[in-house]
Design goal:
Number of domains: 1
CATH superfamily: Ureohydrolase domain
Strand content: 5-15%
Distance between the termini: 21 Å
Radius of gyration: 19 Å
Structural class: alpha/beta
Length: about 350
């Protein structure tokens, strides 16, 4: 139920609601599924607390958009907070710590029964997360909501895209990221954060991947990009070389958008941004897009007549500044696609 006396000019009255708005998920146009999960991270931890940092920071965001003054009335709200994932993560983290300890002391894990048991347990935990996200996504999509996930590591969006792939044909994934995430079962983990795009490209309705801002990848990933015509990569260095040579960002964006199909899923890993905007993300890399550059791209997708059918924001760090950037990114994307 929406409060009739809500004043969008006043201080936030409800710190448990995104942006202090008076909406629950039943009333909101956009439902955000928080996924506090980072079991497969390979560098710094903290992104599991990203959703809480974004929620806290969102209380300080003014809910006014000059182009859409009544945007707040459409509503954006968190889905239920999955406390059960905290317990599941603790279980999975024990397994992955033991697995990585074993990997450091063994020359070859092939055929190692202990390693196989640990990998199986970790993958099963990840499958439970994917199932939960898929199920929650389906509940809200059945009610004609726009659905987004908020991680957590980048693997947390898999369940949402899986659900969307059963409802749409010819989905184009637009990935903003520092990393290609095209490794096949990185570290033996089927649902590693470093394998999310590899996994999404194996969903039957995902027909293309356009990656923007990539600046850290391995030979295996480069070979995948070069060998698959349905994958297009706009490398960060290539983008900057073009801009420094006189090509405007709008022209580059036109080329990016032209390669997308009518149904676009936006996968936004915040490490695709300049690391000054996400200093506590899991794997920051120098370079990247500026805040307004990224949003100009998102806006261009919508202006072109293509539909953003869902999105994720992943890898927000456990820090108020990272939460602030994540919250403002979430609000602006909400405004663009609504």
């Amino acid at each position: 139920m929406i409060r009739k006396d809500f004043d969008p000019n006043a201080a936030s009255f409800n710190p448990n609601n995104l942006f202090g708005l008076p909406h629950g998920p039943e009333d909101a146009k956009l439902v955000v599924i928080p996924v506090p999960w980072e079991v497969t991270i390979s560098a710094r931890s903290g992104t599991a607390n990203g959703p809480k940092q974004v929620l806290l920071a969102s209380q300080q965001v003014d809910v006014f958009e000059r182009d859409k003054p009544g945007l707040w009335e459409m509503g954006i709200a968190f889905d239920e907070f999955p406390t059960q994932l905290i317990t599941l993560q603790a279980e999975a983290l024990k397994c992955i710590m033991n697995y990585r300890r074993l990997a450091k002391t063994s020359d070859d894990l092939q055929g190692n029964e202990t390693a196989a048991v640990l990998i199986k347990a970790i993958n099963q935990c990840c499958e439970q997360v994917n199932y939960w996200v898929k199920r929650r996504s389906g509940i809200w999509l059945d009610q004609d909501k726009i659905v987004a996930t908020l991680g957590g590591d980048h693997s947390t969006c898999y369940g949402l895209v899986h659900e969307l792939s059963e409802r749409y044909e010819d989905i184009s994934v637009l990935q903003i990221d520092a990393h290609a995430d095209l490794r096949n079962a990185y570290e033996g983990l089927t649902y590693s954060h470093a394998s999310i795009m590899f996994n999404l490209m194996n969903l039957p309705s995902v027909t293309s991947l356009t990656a923007v801002g990539i600046r850290d990848l391995c030979q295996e990933e480069f070979d995948v990009i070069e060998s698959r015509k349905e994958i297009t990569c706009h490398y960060d260095r290539q983008i900057r070389d073009n801009m420094y040579s006189g090509t405007g960002w709008s022209s580059i964006v036109d080329t990016i958008v032209e390669g997308l199909g009518p149904n676009v899923y936006l996968s936004f890993d915040v490490d695709g941004l300049n690391p000054s905007l996400c200093p506590n993300t899991g794997t920051p890399v120098p370079g990247g897009l500026e805040f307004e550059e990224a949003l100009y791209l998102v806006q261009a997708v919508v202006k072109s007549g293509k539909q953003i059918i869902g999105f994720d924001i992943s890898e927000c760090g456990d820090d108020p500044w990272d939460g602030n950037v994540g919250a403002r990114l979430l609000w602006r994307i909400f405004g663009i696609i609504s």
